[in-house]
């Protein structure tokens, strides 16, 4: 047998042994419940928490973060048959009658699931996004420097009151009956959804965009 054949045979033997050794390790890990898929799955954030809430009708959002902290997080309110709150150890909550009070201490997103609600008071300085909410009536009171964005909601009677430097954006997928919007100085109003009757009271807007079906529904703006 030539030297090259001996080297080739030796290399093949080593390769077979390595493959056999790998198979033994994989089999041992499998028996222990360890799989390659599990090893490569991203680990959950240790700060993440999801809690089940009692039913509520009103939501109050407050801010307990440091004054110099940037308020860049968003509060997402989404339709769900059950009441849940998802956060990252950046919030505390309590109930007062039929009102859920959420206090936010750090700039991280929060998601709230609920089948419906009738009142939201947002003094947290954080933006809020509502999606797929269905309610006979919804009233939103927003403090200064707050952004409110509405997607695919279905609300018969919608009322919004915003402080200074506020933004309200209602996209065309929303279904609204009556609309009443009041905004303080330097607000931004983007309204694209159709409605049956509406009243808009604004003071020195920085931005105004009413287009599409919403413009066709507009009868009066003050």
Could you explain how this protein is built, in words?
The protein has 222 residues and is an alpha/beta fold. The protein contains 3 helices and 17 strands. The strands form 2 sheets. A 9-stranded mixed sheet has the order 1-4-7-3-9-11-13-15-17. An 8-stranded mixed sheet has the order 5-6-2-8-10-12-14-16, with no helix packed on it. Strand 5 and strand 6 (99-104) form a beta hairpin. The longest helix has 29 residues, at 3-31. The protein starts with a helix and ends in a 5-residue tail after the last helix. Residues 37-42 have low confidence and may be disordered.
In short:
With 222 residues, this protein is of the alpha/beta class. It has 3 helices and 17 strands.
Helix content: 10-25%
Widest β-sheet, arrangement of strands: 1-4-7-3-9-11-13-15-17
Rounded mean pLDDT is: 83
How far is it from the N-terminal to the C-terminal residue, by CA? 100 Å
Task: Please supply descriptive tags for the structure shown above.
222 residues, alpha/beta, 9-stranded mixed β-sheet, 8-stranded mixed β-sheet, 43% strand, globular
